[in-house]
Amino acid sequence: MTDAPHTGAASHGHGPFIAAIDQGTTSSRCIVFDKDGRIVSVDQKEHEQILPKPGWVEHNANEIWTNVQEVVASAIEKAGITSADVKAIGITNQRETTLLWDKNTGEPVHNAIVWQDTRTDALCRELGRNVGQDRFRRETGLPLASYFAGPKARWLLDNVEGLRERAERGEILFGTMDSWVIWNLTGGVDGGVHVTDVTNASRTMLMNLHTMAWDKKILASMHVPAAILPEIRSSAEVYGIAKGGVLDGIPVASALGDQQAALFGQTCFAKGEAKSTYGTGTFMLINTGHTPVNSYNGLLTTVGYRIGEERAVYALEGSIAVTGSLVQWMRDQMGLISSAPEIETLALTVEDNGGAYVVPAFSGLFAPYWRPDARGVIAGLTRYVTKAHIARAVLEATAWQTREISDAMTKDSGVELTTLKVDGGMTSNNLLMQTLSDFLDAPVVRPMVAETTCLGAAYAAGLAVGFWPDTDALRANWRRAAEWTPRMDADKREREYKSWLKAVQRTMGWLEEED
Amino acid sequence: MAKSIQSLERAAAMLRLLAGGERRLGLSDIASTLDLAKGTAHGILRTLQAEGFVEQDPASGRYQLGAELLRLGNSYLDVHELRARALVWADDLARSSGESVHLGVLHQHGVLIVHHVFRPDDSRQVLEVGAMQPLHSTALGKVLAAFDPVAHSEAVEAVRESFTPRTVTDLAEFESVLDHTRARGWAADVEETWEGVAAVAAPIHDRRRMPVGAVAITGAVERVCSDQEVRSELVAAVRQCARAVSRDLGAGRF
């Protein structure tokens, strides 16, 4: 997400502390937080991206567990504290990445299949039968797409020799990375608890959003035996006590998928509060309160979080595939700039986009269009247009895409966005943040702690053990580092938006036929 | 005027010849174009090559401009890169000090604010990115004038306006402030620019130890100072932040 300092932060308060583990796509991290929500220490370790075939992405789950143990030990050491000072451990994780392992030996039966892996494309089409990709949307809030965990589990059961029989005999456990980390932390083969939280379960396509339980009909349709599934628990409660290692004896007290953890860390606890995380891609979530809102505009309906016995809070999620990666593309493929932050320098040499629009539909258009036949365009070129105008159009592309997601959210939920809380690496781009505020016609605010994902996991764990009394205490910890307010006049905004939408139309139908 | 040095003139002519597009030339082309003996031309080219100003293509043996020459032209640090590098540290400084944090660089005759972190107290504040501040009276400006020779000459040549009774405008007095700043590695502004406001700043250096900017905390004089002296823990926090950013800049570009 951001360039985090790899050494312990400069100064910190006194204990006790909460440790958060972020088991991410490229690395595992542990951050120790104090009661004010400030970072005391950080450690991070990358793991191998295993790419056996085009479109396939795997992780070695044993390597990940080893790394998790290492970063935890190192973060505790860097903080200069002992486990006695740590009141709880929280977990946040890359979502949807799927693992099956042997209950009796603790050995994975196969590498974990990562969320980005597209091997289940054909399976998902097959599962859609005559209904199509929305076959399970009413129950799960999700379209049939290769990201989600259920079809990945099915693929493993079908393709690993003898696995289905072992699974039906009850020898195999399924889990996303939260389940794997918690099971190992709490003892593994020696009494480890096999649980997942509602947010992670909501990304399997196997959980019914309304009942918060595994959906028997979907399990049957997907041929996934119920015996392998973890127990679905809330996002903030004590699942078990860590056994062995540096954290021995500490309660394991939260689990949240990474984007939901960021929503929690940004303290978006009220209906209508939204956060957007700007990295290579962008994930925007809006809190829709206690009811799951169906999307007719290509968004996902998902669980935001559930604190203990309280009612679950739902969210609508929209993702943008290409944001930071468009700037990287301008740097690496186009050579327009030599470092990512220079995009702002170049863009600031002109007043506007000079009539140019960049629509980065590199692998089709995602929410709210879902057009795989689209490809990227640069529209509105004249001789007047310079590379500086293009740089501006690049930043505007991220802002307009956010506006489109935000409009879709308003349409689906009826809730107007009041303020957008932002995090992630691109928030250091002042021009982008101002443009975002201008295009959304809403204030954009950046909190002081950039590590909102880990912070969210720490907050949930801290709530579960009474380290923080309630969500109001967490809100009180939230500090505004910067705020951008709209400065664009409404006519201009509407004119520009129209041009953007026209440019988007130009991307569609570029591929003749999708196969 | 002293006689110019012939070999430098010839080296300059060679660089001009190779400049303009991606031109590659062989030794004999260079020698004949500049009307030089091949041996003389080769000697100069080898010296330029050793300095990294010229590179020789291993396959064709032809010469082209070297990467060092490009670095020479691009050696300035992009201010937006500075902000990206400083973001996490500046946030932490604001949280630990309880005051607002500014990052400034020299721009024309003053200090350009390139990054601003709000004071963490939930009060309404306005982002000051893009604002200009004076060089001679602010903590940021004094640090820049003390450590960056270009900023120094700007501050010396400018009209040093008096903003408060405490503003230092006299040149000799100003120079002694800068000497003091160099000696201790930080600068303060106690009600010298704005009544009731105090600030403390420290320099940020890049990997070549060039001063590229300064970081400051700014707040009400009652909180920042005790007995008209900047509180020592705030000085320590600002310097620690400046060092952390400098360290990150030394780690190379991304």
Structure description:
Chain A contains 16 helices and 23 strands. Chain A is an alpha+beta fold and 515 residues long. In chain A, α9 packs across α14 and α10 runs antiparallel to α12. In chain B, α2 packs across α3, α5 packs antiparallel against α10 and α6 crosses α8. By secondary structure, chain B is an alpha+beta fold. Chain B has two domains: 60 residues, Orthogonal Bundle (Arc Repressor Mutant, subunit A); 175 residues, GAF domain (Beta-Lactamase, 2-Layer Sandwich), CATH 3.30.450. Chain B is elongated. The chains are: A alpha+beta (515), B alpha+beta (254). Chains A and B meet through α11 and β23 of A and α5, β4 and α10 of B.
SSE pattern of chain B: HHHEEHHEEEHHHEEEHEEH
Question: Major sheet of chain A: size, sense and barrel closure?
Answer: 7 strands, mixed
Strand content bin of chain B: 15-25%
Q: How are the strands ordered across the major sheet of chain A?
A: 17-18-16-15-21-22-23
Question: What best-fitting shape of chain B do the alpha-carbon axes yield?
Answer: elongated
The number of helical runs of chain B is 10
Number of E strands of chain A: 23
Which bin fits the share of residues in helices of chain A?
A: 25-40%
Strand content of chain A: 15-25%
Mean pLDDT of chain B: 88
The side-by-side strand order for the widest beta sheet of chain B comes to 5-4-3-8-7-6
The CATH class of the largest domain in chain B is Alpha Beta
CATH H-level superfamily of the largest domain in chain B: GAF domain
Tally of DSSP β-strands of chain B? 10
Biggest chain-to-chain interface with counts: A-B, 32 and 32 residues
